[in-house]
Structures are given as structure tokens and as C-alpha cells.
Amino acid sequence: SYVLVTGATGFIGAHVVDNLLARGFSVRGSTRSKAKGDQMKAARPQYASQLDWVVVEDFTKIGVFDSVMDGIDAVIHVASPFFYDTTNNEQELVLPAINGVKSILSASAKQGSNIKRVVMTSSFAAVVDVNTTPPAGFTYTAADWNPLTYETSISPESNSVVAYRGSKKFAEKAAWDFVRDQKTSFDLVTLCPPMVFGPVVHPVPTVAQLNESNSVLWSVAAGADPLPGARVPAWIDARDLAEAHVQALLTPEAGGKRFIPASSEPFSYELAADIIRGEFEWGKKSVTGNYKMGEKPVASYGVDGETVSKELGVEYRPFRETVVDLVGQIKALA
Ligand code: NDP
Predict the structure, then answer these.
(1) Of 30, 96, 140, 145, which residue is 20 to 30 A from 52 by alpha carbon distance?
(2) How far lies 303's CA from each of 216, 234, 323, in Å?
(3) pLDDT tens, position by position, 137-155
(4) 97 Cβ inside 6 Å of ligand 1
(5) 92 CA closest ligand 1 atom index
(6) Whose CA is nearest to atom 11 of ligand 1?
(7) What confidence score (pLDDT) does residue 287 get?
(8) Closest Cα partner for 138 from 322, 303, 315?
(9) Which residue positions in the chain have pLDDT lower than 50?
(10) How far is 219 from 141, CA to CA, in rounded Å?
């Protein structure tokens, strides 16, 4: 099989690429940057014959993927704008996310029955209602959607975190609408991970270029004071998330379903600080220790990651392993 992966030079996309390659699949990565694609290929000489790249400059233009689908049987759509230093919420976050989905799905639909399945990376941001305190014992499941309106998402009054939540919700909705309205011959699986952390396998030349979620975790190791507050209490390791994507592609019964891949172990940046101080000599100095465990009240609710374990067969790594693997790797870069 031959799988097209968008966002393949990003943090999560590169792990998806590696998981597919290790299982023997051929992979076509799409990126805006030929240099990053070349760098990833050069770093994987053993997979030279299984990996090729296509440069798609602006993936929001309908039609740009049409010419890169030759021989492709399945698509994993990971690419979406994920950064918070925006000046225009609609132009930089919301519309690119939605149009990227429409663009990849319309190209897939033109392939007729050649494409069997599309897996898409949505986000727990499309699930969680951050403005409501859930009742004690509440557990979010894949049936939940954040209640943001499009107008609020794009409003200049909204900060970029709100706009990002809207971008993920409306991009995922666009995907479900597309397969329903066009009656596509492929089916869709969406994954809604919470915070994703872990070692990087994509090109990261400097610490400043680390992806959004890992850079917050790294800031703890670098001595952030006060520690960042966790927006959601749930997380997953990028390697486990990659496994979930590929299992979502290969499990017939997953078709048409939405999943939340998430470890059942809660996390906080205080816990990360403790792990870093305990595991690294330099960490004792760097992390100030000027915090109390659980000092900042993190929203308390459960997140159903068990359905993914059961239905996709994914086992979750412990938070300690994720923190040690990322922080050890980035320390060597810093
Ligand atoms: P990265 O920023 O590392 O990767 C995002 C990728 O998307 C980049 O490689 C980039 O590809 C591509 N991309 C971004 N904007 C555009 C655009 N306007 N046009 C074309 N391509 C674009 O982030 P992550 O790997 O962390 O995120 C990947 C996905 O996972 C996103 O959909 C994100 O919403 C989702 N997610 C991430 C979480 C996290 O904690 N990290 C949590 C939940 C969901 P290139 O530069 O090569 O063109």
C-alpha cells in the first residue's frame, strides 16, 4: 500500500511517517518545504525506496493535491496551522484549516475507489468545552463537540487559542460534511488527541523551532517561572499517537468513527518539573522548584482514551518516559 501523509515534516506527521515505514508501507509526504523533505529522506537511508516527497506550496487551494495522488491507496491528513502568534484569526488559522481539508478530500474523491480510507488529525480542542465546569466525575468522549460558533472563532476579539479551537472544530466538521454530502467511496476516521509530547523525529534545527506543544514542556526544563498552566489535563506521546493513526487506517471497523487517543495517566507541568529534577543532574538547577504539586487547579474531568486502546489496540507510554525522552533530546540541542 502507498499512503499520502500531509504535514509529514511536522512533529506528529513525521512520527506517522516512521510508523508506516517501519511496517513496510510506501509513503508520500507532502510539505511546503522541499528542504525539510530532503532532510527527512536523508535521515532515513534504509527507507530510501519507500519514501518520496511532493511539495505543495499552498494546500488551501482546491486542486493542488489532484496531481500527487497517483498510486495512492489511503491518506493521513495531519497538516493544519498550529501556532498562536497570529494577527488574523480567520486568514491564518481558521480558513487554512478548513480549506486544507476540502482540498485533500476533493483530491481523494477524484480518485474514485482507489482511495479506501482517509484518517484525519483533529484535536481534543474540537471536543472540550473550556467555558463550562463539568459535573464531578464527567468524562469527555468522542461524542462531544466544543460549542464555539464560527463567528466567535474568527472574531478579532477572540485570542488565537480560541481561534485554533475553532479551526479544529470547523475543519473536522467540514470533513464529516464532505464524506456525507459527496457520498465518497472512501470512509473517514478522525482522531482528537489532547496535548501531544515526545521526542522529535522531524527536522528541528534550533530549540526556538520546536513545535508548539513540546516547546511548552521544554520551557519547564528551561526554568519557566511560574510554570505554564495546563489547558487540558490530558496528553498522549507522539509515538503512541502515530500508532493510533496507522491502526485507524488498518482497522476495518474504525471507518466512520471519531476517537480520542489519550493516556489515562493525568499530567501537569508540576509533574513534568518533578520528573526533570529527579532524572537529570542539570535539571535540579534549571527547574527552580519554586512550585507546589497541583498548585494550579487544572480542570478536572476524565477523557476516554480507553476506546482507542480497545478498538485500535494502542498501549500508552508512561508520562515519565515521554518527558525523559523529549527533554534529554532537546537538552543536547540547546
Ligand atoms: P507542527 O507545526 O509540527 O506540524 C504541522 C504541519 O502542518 C507542518 O509540518 C506544516 O507542514 C503543516 N502546515 C501547517 N500550516 C500549513 C499551511 N497553512 N499550509 C500547509 N501546511 C501547513 O504541529 P503538530 O505536528 O504538533 O500538529 C499536527 C496536527 O496535529 C495539527 O493538525 C494539529 O492541529 C494537531 N494536534 C496537535 C497537538 C499537539 O499537542 N501537538 C494536539 C492536538 C492536535 P510544512 O511546514 O511541511 O508545509
Answers:
(1) 96
(2) 21, 7, 20
(3) 999 999 999 999 999 999 9
(4) no
(5) 18
(6) 7
(7) 94
(8) 303
(9) none
(10) 30
Question: Is 285 in a helix, a strand, or coil?
Answer: helix
- Looking at ligand 1, which residue's alpha carbon is closest to its atom 9? 10
Pocket test for ligand 1, best of 4, 6, 11, 103 (most atoms within 8 A of CB): 11
Average pLDDT value for the chain: 95
Please tell me the predicted confidence (pLDDT) of residue 265: 92
pLDDT of residue 83: 82
User: Which residue CA neighbors atom 15 of ligand 1 most closely?
Assistant: 81
- Give the per-residue pLDDT at 229: 87
Q: What is the DSSP string of 11-79?
A: HHHHHHHHHHHHTT-EEEEEES-HHHHHHHHHT-GGGTTTEEEEE-S-TTSTTTTGGG-TT--EEEE--
Residue 238 three-state SS: helix
Do 127 and 145 form a contact (C-beta atoms < 8 A)?
A: yes
Tell me if the bond preceding 226 is cis, omega within 30° of 0.
Answer: yes
Give the cell for residue 21: 515505514
Q: What does the pLDDT read at residue 295?
A: 60
How far is the C-alpha of 186 from the C-alpha of 112, rounded, in Å?
Answer: 8
**ipTM for the predicted complex:** 0.97
